[in-house]
Request: fold
Amino acid sequence: MTVVQDITVTTAEETERVAAELARSLRPGDVVALDGELGSGKTSFVRGLAGGLGCEGIVNSPTFVRMQQYSGDGGELVHIDAYRFEGEADLAQLGWDELLDGRRAVIAIEWATRVAHALPDRRVDVTLAYADGDARTIRIRDRRQAGTAKACGVCGQAMPAGVVGAFCSERCRGADLRRWLDGVYAIGSIPEDQDE
Reply:
């Protein structure tokens, strides 16, 4: 099952917040394939992914260096810009197969349609498009759940259809935040006394 979500934003900060929310559901080995016109917000989206993964450092488009790597508390992020790619050999030079097989980092690739043949079927497609005025539309197509039911990161319940993120409800999001603030990073279930 592919989950599709359309979101309208008007600032780069809003774009980054949407991406940070998505980052909470990403795991090492996940691929985020970004497309959109020049200036539509692809790099801002990757900046939000990096922030959501706790990565440090300034996130810029790697158009000329082709690939950047960032590390943080929430994992690693590999940022690839395929704008200047001429073919499959460009991906091979970056160690594309090793990146996919290693499953050590989330991979975000801008201008993904230029290397569509090499993308895994299990991925998240993000398309950014200009809308009215300063607005942008972000379409997120989550193709990672094909044939598998995603579970809430707190209570383990199956995620409702259409929910993007790691939690099935605001209650679970709040419970995770409380545990994070208390220094506990993994929750198996919510104690009965915390039910609504």
Remarks:
- Residues 3-142 form a domain with the Rossmann fold fold (CATH 3.40.50.300).
- The two ends are 30 Å apart (CA to CA).
- The CA atoms of residues 55 and 71 lie 5 Å apart.
